[in-house]
Specification:
Largest sheet: 8 strands, antiparallel
Shape: globular
Number of domains: 2
Structural class: alpha+beta
Number of strands: 20
Distance between the termini: 27 Å
Number of helices: 11
Radius of gyration: 20 Å
């Protein structure tokens, strides 16, 4: 066995979710990677926990969603919700075979899945009531999306996922303090001039305890405070479709105009419910090993020098009042090769072209974290 698999399993069990004796741990494997599942089970049992495993496959889920009536999807959500209520920890990962596996599922079926399974089981139960971590596992499809050989991607994956998250966590403290003291945020860049308040909304550092890979500090805008325009420069795969050139115009917190490579589709998505046109998260990415997008949100949202500004549901630990079945992390990279950009806190420039320029935050720049 590759020793890196054991190391990653140990990080997930003992650092990320901190399994305690007697706790129930649900391991949800989409893509079916038995070697990694066995490593996780061993790590959970060694920590004194009780491991439960769900094996899923995107093509099987697709077949179910294509023909299932709403009552069946609702019943599935009921079963999964009852199981999730008995869990103290959750470790979920995807090993992608085909990033577009759900691309031809009708939107009304996807909406039923979001409203019943995703919202009730994950947004309303797992996220606020378990210690959870989600990740991706290296696969040929992911290597292809990253434009890398399988061996090169695997090496990249383990560099990113087993980095010194303790060091990153300490460096994040200064950014947390900055965000606590900030009222007005302004984001500027090509096609972007956005202003909003984060006053009174607690910042949260993501230092390997929620996602692997990790590397962001997030908060949320005051729900009705967002005004201006943002033009995202990173492709985003969402429910089997790759959106590009996404542009939002905001007025008093609401997306009043949205366009992309399929403007009709993105507007239908934003009409899923009332909260989908409001923003639930604002985050700053700092992972020094992730420097370019690969259309995999769990990686792209951590890109050093990026932000993500998220339509949809707000997390309970930084709740701005917005609830939705959607939570869509869209990424804007501000490094020079992607057009540059600026972040301002209360009229002070804190990051320019992807690098922090104030002394207390320079320890979060890539050279300092590696």
């Amino acid at each position: 066995m590759d020793s890196r698999i054991e190391k990653l399993a140990d990080i997930l069990v003992n650092y990320s979710v901190k399994v305690q004796p007697g706790e129930n741990v649900l391991i949800q494997d989409t893509g079916i990677e038995p070697e990694f599942d066995r490593a996780l089970i061993r790590a959970v049992h060694k920590a004194g926990g009780r491991a439960f495993v769900t094996l899923r496959d995107k093509t099987i889920d697709r077949a179910l969603l294509l023909d299932a009536p709403e009552a069946q999807i609702a019943l599935q959500a009921e079963f999964e919700l009852e199981r999730m209520k008995k869990m103290q920890c959750f470790i979920g990962f995807n090993s992608w075979r085909n990033m577009s596996a759900w691309s031809d599922i009708p939107e009304d079926k996807l909406n039923l899945y979001n409203i019943h399974v995703w919202k009730k089981v994950h947004i309303e139960q797992r996220v606020p009531h378990t210690r959870w971590v989600v990740l991706r596992y290296p696969s040929p499809a992911m290597a292809q999306m990253a434009g890398m050989s399988e061996e090169a991607f695997e090496n990249f994956f383990y560099d990113v996922c087993t980095m010194d998250y303790g060091k990153m966590s300490k460096a994040m403290d200064a950014l947390v303090e900055r965000l606590k003291q900030t009222d007005k945020v302004r984001i500027k860049g090509p096609g972007t001039d956005l202003e909003f308040s984060i006053k009174g909304l607690p910042p949260v550092k993501c230092d390997g305890t929620i996602n692997i890979p990790d590397g962001e500090v997030y908060t949320a805008p005051v729900k009705n405070s967002v005004n201006g325009v943002i033009s995202y420069n990173t492709p985003s795969e969402y429910q089997g479709f790759t959106y590009e050139g996404v542009r939002f115009e905001f007025k008093d917190g609401k997306i009043v105009k949205a366009s992309a490579n399929d403007s009709d589709r993105i507007n239908r998505l934003l009409d899923t419910d009332e909260g989908a046109r409001y923003v639930g998260e604002f985050a700053i990415g700092v992972n020094p090993y992730i420097t370019k997008p690969m259309k995999e949100t769990l990686f792209d949202e951590k890109i050093a020098g990026s932000i993500h500004f998220t339509p949809g549901n707000s997390y309970d630990d930084c709740f701005n009042g917005n609830k939705s079945a959607i939570h869509w992390d869209l990424v804007l990279i501000q490094t020079p090769e992607y057009g540059g950009g600026e972040i301002w806190f209360d009229n002070e420039l804190v990051r320019k072209d992807g690098l922090f320029v104030v002394n207390d935050l320079k320890s979060l720049n890539p050279d300092a974290l590696k």
